[in-house]
Amino acid sequence: xxxxxxxxxxxxxxxxxxxxxxxxxxxxxxxxxxxxxxxxxxxxxxxxxxxxxxxxxxxxxxxxxxxxxxxxxxxxxxxxxxxxxxxxxxxxxxxxxxxxxxxxxxxxxxxxxxxxxxxxxxxxxxxxxxxxxxxxxxxxxxxxxxxxxxxxxxxxxxxxxxxxxxxxxxxxxxxxxxxxxxxxxxxxxxxxxxxxxxxxxxxxxxxxxxxxxxxxxxxxxxxxxxxxxxxxxxxxxxxxxxxxxxxxxxxxxxxxxxxxxxxxxxxxxxxxxxxxxxxxxxxxxxxxxxxxxxxxxxxxxxxxxxxxxxxxxxxxxxxxxxxxxxxxxxxxxxxxxxxxxxxxxxxxxxxxxxxxxxxxxxxxxxxxxxxxxxxxxxxxxxxxxxxxxxxxxxxxxxxxxxxxxxxxxxxxxxxxxxxxxxxxxxxxxxxxxxxxxxxxxxxxxxxxxxxxxxxxxxxxxxxxxxxxxxxxxxxxxxxxxxxxxxxxxxxxxxxxxxxxxxxxxxxxxxxxxxxxxxxxxxxxxxxxxxxxxx
Length: 534
Prior knowledge:
Blueprint (H helix, E strand, L loop, with lengths): L14 E3 L3 E4 L2 H12 L4 H15 L9 E8 L2 E7 L9 H6 L18 H12 L4 H14 L1 E2 L2 H17 L3 H10 L11 E2 L2 H12 L3 H5 L1 H12 L6 H6 L3 E3 L2 E5 L2 E5 L6 H11 L10 H21 L10 H4 L2 H8 L20 E6 L5 E7 L8 E3 L4 E3 L29 E5 L2 E9 L4 H13 L5 H6 L3 E5 L2 E4 L5 H9 L3 E4 L8 E7 L6 E4 L7 E4 L1
Parallel strand pairs: 17-18
Antiparallel strand pairs: 1-20, 2-10, 2-21, 3-4, 3-11, 4-7, 5-6, 8-9, 9-14, 10-11, 12-13, 14-15, 15-19, 16-17, 19-20
Helix pairs in contact: 1-2, 2-4, 2-5, 5-8, 12-13, 12-15, 12-16
């Protein structure tokens, strides 16, 4: 039976569409995707257009200087794209140790890895796009040049970043961020009109060169010059050698459904490992303490393994098959008892982000995610470009024994993960929940809401969420059942209520309507989520 959600819980309803659909975290970006679909573009063109537009209208979560991943269903075949960058050739653990740096900082050049977002757009377009690249990026250029109205969630995140940056980021190195995103010493408020003209020029350059300017041209040179001036590590040579990587999505079977994720260095495998563990456990009602307890414990065990083993695949000590072994999941499931556990990794047998989804009239669909990480990223903006550089290298380890230890030309453990759902080996559609280490936890909860508890996409996204933080510490949303909080505490969990709307991720779902044809879509109530369709 589907749960009954009061109207006060969510005013949003699952959207139905016959021909095409775009689900994003920001309304004008959704309209950009719809514009491209109506011009004859396919789902891939729409996804690229949305990705570029979101760098303009939601710079608090992603940017031109970040990374992206995508799962693409094209002509019935599933493809995966990993467009995450590697550490600069000049950067290593030993280099930092010699400078007295024992922990990778959040800001500055140390955590800056090669940005892969632009290469991801160009790679997707070259293989699948039908409209000219300039036409696909034109709406984003227009938004940046002519201006846009800042939405409520974005304005709040912008102000939060400004407060943090004002306190911690000093000197000429960080001055360009304030010039770009906080002119006159303040950030835009909800509903304020804002322009990013340097951003527009950069996007035009990217459009006219199919992205080559970023890796081998004018912009690459500007990044190199900025880095050298401030004793950074990234160089034009790092940018020129970067390529996106086509990968085979990994999956697991769960109760007749096939759940697909991008393989490591992303953490999507954590969601799959948790689903594998859940497949060996008896599931009761969605609001049962036993169900929630088992979900949390399964996620903790999956994360313990993920944090130990996930890194650049070239450096992993185990294969994906090892970590996704059903027998190993069964062994892990036996560790789940009545009381909360403190998770430890097992030993398998060897042998601030934006998420958006698009679908077109021909059945092509895209699950895509893009991020600068931790909001605006490193706090660095390349002068005269509007490009905020990400800080994805913050996820590297300084432990020399870790498979994820910092090393030149190596990709770090990556939190952003797009998902794709099949049923009985037939594609249903894209799904995702952005938000750092919340992402696999959001995948588990939203998927079980749909598969086990028969919720429609909007209900699955709306339902109150929990998040495991560390050890036995759990945070929950204010709407979370007080009864369940009480029982979780009795089982040894340490539960606190987190009132931050963005703390529990932001998701989007598009699935095929198996009965009537067309699509069903759900968007996120925890932000300015929107669906555009026709």
